[in-house]
Sequence to fold (672 residues):
Amino acid sequence: MLKEGDTLITSRQKDLLKMIIEEYIKTAKPVGSKSICERMDCSSATVRAEMSNLEDLGLLEKTHISSGRIPSEKGYRYYVDNIMEPKKLSGEDMLKLQCIMDNKSLTISDVIEKSMEIIAEMTNYTAIILGKSSKDNLVSKVEVIPIDENNLVAIVVTNKGHVEHKNIYLEGHVSSRDISKTIELINKLIVGTPIDEVSSFLEFEVKPIISNYVEQHEILYNAFYNAFNEFTNINHVNMAGRVNMLNQPEFSDADKIREIVSKFDDKEIVNAIKEEGNGVNIYIGSENNFDDDVTVIKTKYNINGEVGTIAMIGPKRMDYDRVTTLLNYIVENINK
Amino acid sequence: MLKEGDTLITSRQKDLLKMIIEEYIKTAKPVGSKSICERMDCSSATVRAEMSNLEDLGLLEKTHISSGRIPSEKGYRYYVDNIMEPKKLSGEDMLKLQCIMDNKSLTISDVIEKSMEIIAEMTNYTAIILGKSSKDNLVSKVEVIPIDENNLVAIVVTNKGHVEHKNIYLEGHVSSRDISKTIELINKLIVGTPIDEVSSFLEFEVKPIISNYVEQHEILYNAFYNAFNEFTNINHVNMAGRVNMLNQPEFSDADKIREIVSKFDDKEIVNAIKEEGNGVNIYIGSENNFDDDVTVIKTKYNINGEVGTIAMIGPKRMDYDRVTTLLNYIVENINK
DNA sequence: TTTTAGCACTCCTTTTCTGTAGGTGCTGAA
DNA sequence: TTCAGCACCTACAGAAAAGGAGTGCTAAAA
Fold:
């Protein structure tokens, strides 16, 4: 599908670009005219001429003046937008995933996690899962358990089976009557509130009431407000196959490896991978905010109140087709 | 302190060994006789003769026939056992840690985690925290919340404020009467049981009783048994500063970096770091089960029912003194 | 007996040079 | 338009050369 502004290329150029990109994805080595000409059914000189045209269009690049061609970022983008046709999942891939999907005793987050582990192993790229409980989760139970004079544990369970807990520390002495009254009120008022509205609900609905019934309402309200506020901000980050991507030949340089490892370690950078758009999206090189030398393929999921992002990170020369299909399959099949 | 079997060396040899090791810890470069002789107040030839003796004793090594000396594993071991004298913590180091220790609103696990993050940054090594709730935790509350017909959430809170939860899936239809009866019985029977005895307690004390009162006792008992069994087996693994160690010059090789990263990724290998002995222990090179090229310094902690291991991993040429002191400080000061 | 200056020697590291392999672009003829 | 032929380019690998840091040994001095 050509959008306005897209580069117009002949059908032969398209074939050539496809061959070069798919060859490069397989071998990671610059592709020369000779290796292509048999399949193109013409001489290497002709291939060279076309390659030169594709280079002028910015779709191919050379590593040095007399090297074979490698795809440019624009080339990959063109491939993804206009050439690549979605494959079906291979039976083998499907089978491995189905095993996990069919296991009823796993929670949704477990299924997602395990599926991503599997595809990290299958593809040799790195999987990232960013999970978060969402709007669709309603508070169905709040439990507060006293540990000692100054410490409580607050537990929130949602109607979707999501559990979060947090320790609460109370500054100074607070009467146990006040504590139990606060808990009683919170439980009475807050059940049924969407989890991401709890903070504002506490502030506007609960605070005024507590201050009427509870003596040391300030200490107690603040402690609970802080605890509940964190519930809604908790991001679960999970990764699988960190080392996979580092085994790709483009990461043979020790410094590059360290750079990537340190980005994997940085929670802010990893959290920024969160996908906002719809569908499976591909961010090639400078298009992603992780690293210019990688591609990130990711998609949002929202299944039964579990929301989050699943992503695969690999070299720009990654198997776009397969990864896209796999992510799609996971998101679609978990719904069932 | 010389133990039987220890190598006996002269006091001058001891001084020399100390200098060489401390120099090598700083620079990571083989130490030559010339750079030492000024500090030893003798000629380089004399130093060379003594170096040769220390090499015969197996305490020093050469990287090639005409290189300077580097400590052997045995040399480090001798240094750690007989030469190194525990330094006091620097005021700066102490201050940074104290900030965290004094924060009352953090749980013990949070304090440990944050402290380890700090010392990973200070030392440029990698920190590992293996946590687990222990014998000293007694079950103080069991909460089971139904999600839908087949799914429950079980939550266990201990008297120390530790919370674990697990989703339970019930095969087939189970009457809600049976479910609530089971929950009632479990709650009645299990409170006060040490968390690591829950499994056997369930089997021998709870199972017979449930089978009397509950119709579909088999399904229910199995579901709960599995859930509770996992509580006692949960290991929390945490790492900080993965990349720190990789910045050390001994890990300039891409393959070595990959090897280490993949070991960091392997839960089994990381879990095997768990310390069994008492005090702060040092495992140099082949003495540890992580990697022959690293040293692991670790210690068990058991604070208020939170037990686990904290460990630092670095090159064999790590700052034994400082790391030992830091780990000691953390474990000792958290108690307060 | 211990220390030391002097010297030959060893091996690593860095740089330079070489040949080769795999590519390209251009040109003129088919 | 296509293509064979040719001149040309660069990366890569290996060999050779130069420089540097450090050793072991020996014979003389302390």
